[in-house]
Amino acid sequence: MNEVLTGILDAVQSVDPVLRVLIAGAAMFFETSILLGLFVPGDTIVIVAATAVTDLWQGVWLVLAVIAGSLAGESVGFWLGRVLGPRIRHSRLGRWIGETHWQRAERYLERRGGIAVFVSRFLPVLHSLVPMTVGMSGFRYRRFIAWTAPACTLWAVLYVTVSSLAAGTYRDLADQLHFAGYIFIGVMVLFLVAVIVAKKMIQHIERRHLGEAVPATDASARGDATDPAASDSPGIRAHRHGADAAPGVGD
Asked: 209-227 pLDDT, tens per residue?
């Protein structure tokens, strides 16, 4: 296992550091712009690039590239939403994504405002749809950046730090422990599981604002039998959505 992992890490490390940084930044740009986040595994590319970090400055440059790529991609998504949003939404790609996801992103933005922009960076599907949805909503670009920049920074620091520390620790232990490779894999698996669990917890906490059904146990604990938005028929939900649209964006 050590030999295999060392070979993989050495292969990644053999790539020019500048090229690694550019690839990671480009991956995040494409992941966060024009819906390509549904297809481009930006987080995986960042993790792989971070395993080759050997000093503090390489880590800093990688974090900066990931942040810059994310912000550039989300800015492109925002302006595409502002200019071409309805066309993209009703295009073949937009229909493939599904009207349900578009409405979910709209409803979340209307109910949570800037908080939705921040939190969506950590939620699947929504992190690709929200920038374009924000652009279509009339949300100001300056306000959008003010909410998404901290989220992108937190995401970049977390992924790069954990991945680089795990790889560095493995390299230190590889010559001393024959099972060091399993430790490295275990750490990365635990990290990814923690990310998945955190996303599920965020979804659970934000479920009411996303317009999803609240489990009966949670509702009864709060004294509510059901979530009104979830129990309404599609037609009523559409009406409710239209009635709430104006005040929510400014929250």
From this structure: 666 544 444 443 344 433 4
